[in-house]
Amino acid sequence: MAAPFRVRRSLLFVPAVRPDRYPKALATGADAVCIDLEDGVAFGAKDEARDKALALFESRAPVRAEVSLRINDPKTDLGRRDLEVLRRSGIRPDALMLPKCDGPEEIREVAAALAADLPDLPLIVMLETARGVAAAEAIATATPTVSAVFFGAIDFAADVGCEVAWDAALYARSRAIVAAAVARVGALDSPYMDVPALAALAAESRRTRALGFTGKAAIHPTQVPVIQAAFSPAADEVAWARRIVDAYERNAGGVLLVDGKLIERPVIASAQRTLAMAAAVEPDGDSAP
Predict the structure, then answer these.
(1) How many other C-beta atoms are found inside a 10 Å radius of the C-beta of residue 87?
(2) Burial class (CB in 10 A: 0-12, 13-18, 19+), 277
(3) Alpha carbon of 81 to those of 88, 92, 261: distances in Å?
(4) Terminus of the chain with fewer CB atoms < 10 Å: N or C?
(5) What confidence tens digit (pLDDT) does each residue in 67-123 have?
(6) What secondary structure letter does DSSP report for 8?
(7) Which residue intervals of the chain are DSSP H helices?
């Protein structure tokens, strides 16, 4: 059984060396915030970042947002050190993000290493290498604690030599979506790196949602409301879904005609998902686990 689905329309990264940005990140209303030990931290500051991250988790108050921790690649000495220190600390983030996943065995090794001290800790697995995308389904289903699949376009493009562009990465994004669907978990898309280009971010977010992603990462607070609006059902979507579900319930599961259109089971399932998401992000755009 997959880990319980959690609404993550947006996930905002905060470098662990900048704990002062954490309250600002929470104030954005992001569904998820990730304290980053990897790309957001210079190599010489890794120990400092780890200490600050653990201090932040130790002192934090309960919040609505999911607060995860991204460690360094667990195949490296730095990543193994992150895991060991976390395991011994007794601190439990809401989820653990694993970068540069190349295959299912490394996911199972991390889950096994955490089993005694941090049992059932949700894992967000990142597909950002050629090997990772090639093994997408195996990685997503490696352990029941996998909670989401995250496609990282920047590292993927660097690994395969393609442009960091929608069309160039479409195949890899599609593989991530299929893998998440197989595992019945959420799918997060890579951040949009041009921070001031909010209109372009909105367009890419809508395109990403249309492909099947359930959320998108952010690297700046101004991106969060744009992303969350794109991944929230519009009023007309909710109204249509309600009509479909109401008709289905009145008809006791039989064949439906709504506005002269035959409504089959996949359409009903899609309508039910829309209503579930709408309920999860109410009121005032807030989300619930």
Answers:
(1) 16
(2) buried
(3) 11, 16, 58
(4) N
(5) 999 999 999 999 999 999 999 998 999 999 999 999 999 999 999 999 999 999 999
(6) -
(7) 22-27, 46-59, 77-89, 104-114, 130-134, 136-140, 153-160, 170-183, 198-211, 223-230, 235-250, 265-280
**Amino acid found at 6:** R
The C-alpha angle 99, 101, 103, rounded to 5 degrees, equals: 170
Q: Answer yes or no: is pLDDT of 130 > 60.
A: yes
How many residues appear in the chain? Answer: 289
Cα 161–chain centre separation: 25
- pLDDT level of residue 284 (50, 70, 90 thresholds): very low
- What pTM value is reported for the model? 0.88
Tokens 């990282």 correspond to what residue?
152
Three-class secondary structure of residue 43 per DSSP: helix
Span 27-57, pLDDT tens digits? 999 999 999 999 999 999 999 999 999 999 9
Say which residues have a Cβ less than 8 Å from residue 203's Cβ, sequence separation at least 6.
Answer: none
Rg (CA), the chain: 19
Determine what percent of the chain falls in helix, strand and coil, rounding each to the nearest 5. Answer: 45, 15, 35
Phi then psi for 79, rounded to 5 degrees? -65, -40
Give the number of other Cβ atoms within 10 Å of residue 63's Cβ. Answer: 12
The residue among 232 and 198 whose pLDDT is bigger is 198
For 20, other C-beta atoms within 10 Å of its C-beta total 8
pLDDT at residue 269 in the model: 72
Q: Scanning the structure block, which residue is given the tokens 């991390």?
A: 110
Element at 102 (helix H, strand E): none
Q: What tokens appear for 179 in the block?
A: 């893998």
